[in-house]
Amino acid sequence: MTVKALIASFTQQEDLNFLLTNRIPRAALTRFMGWFSKIENPLIRDGSIALWKLFSDLDLSEARKTHFKSLHDCFTRELKPGLRPFDPDPSVVASPSDGIVGAHGRIADTELFQVKGAPYSLLDLLGDSALVDQHRNGSFVTLRLTSSMYHRFHAPFDAHIERVTLIHGDVWNVNPIALKRVERLFCKNERAVIRTHLSSGEAVTLVPVAAILVASIRLHFLDMVLNAQTRGPVNFPCDVNVSKGEELGWFEHGSTIIILAPGDFSFCDGIAEGTRIRAGQALLRKN
Q: In the structure, what pLDDT confidence band is assigned to residue 24 with cuts at 50, 70 and 90?
């Protein structure tokens, strides 16, 4: 058995995985990783990337550049042009990022779920009753980004962005093992609520959720990084029009994006829990 296979077997033991990735000083370790990943020392950079490859399926063949200044530079890498074409159909909401499809379906009044049998409420997630009303009985889909994936995310449709709200919180791991054990996990973790509208006026909301080692999100249209160190106002009014496929920003490492859509949208063919999807692929379609 290879070293990578041994590591995979070891970490697939759920109780051990949960212990190693959650029962530790999560916030302190996340702050440390944010600092460490930006060190521009060739030995640290090369050793860190080599270790990362050992523990994951990291593939850098799609990366736009072959030399990285730091581990952070590698995490937030751009891809070669043309590798993530966006579905041009205006009735389609495309996937904003690479990811693995998690819980998805209809919102039962204002209740959705993180895994089967583990519900949470829109109000707990969004913190705004007016926004909750806009998504009542709508559709939702959860996309999980693993550490080795492309970490930039894009506009899933032509949209108007009207506000971003930062909600401070914890940094639990967001893998399936933690989702089965921690109630309302997405409502406890740090997250941003990005309010957008389609050209037809319907609300579609993106909720990037932080995780352990991953508690920063860079948004180009705000020209800032949002994380636990963000001080002052947490509501950022916007008046920004974005085109489908336009890059919105990136996660520092990897995490989760929850997409909330109107009730008259249905899931496109091939969307099933556990399916890998790429940025630009059809995710939801207006009926």
A: low
Helices 3-11 and 42-55, packing angle to 10 deg: 70
pLDDT single digits (tens) 113-129: 998 888 999 999 999 99
C-alpha distances out from residue 286 to 189, 221, 265, Å: 30, 27, 4
Q: Looking at 87-233, list the stretches that DSSP marks H as alpha helix, in order from N- to C-terminal side.
A: 122-126, 129-135, 176-181, 185-188
Give the catalytic positions in this structure.
98, 154, 255
Q: Span 96-117, mean pLDDT? A: 94
pTM higher than 0.85 for the full model?
Answer: yes
What the chain holds in terms of domains, given with CATH numbers, is 3-75 (no CATH), 92-286 (2.70.70)
Q: Which long-range contacts (CB under 8 A, 24 or more apart) does 53-56 make?
A: 54/3, 54/4, 54/7, 55/4, 55/7, 56/146, 56/147, 56/148
If you average pLDDT over residues 240-245, what whole number do you get?
Answer: 95
Provide the 3-class DSSP secondary structure of residue 279: coil
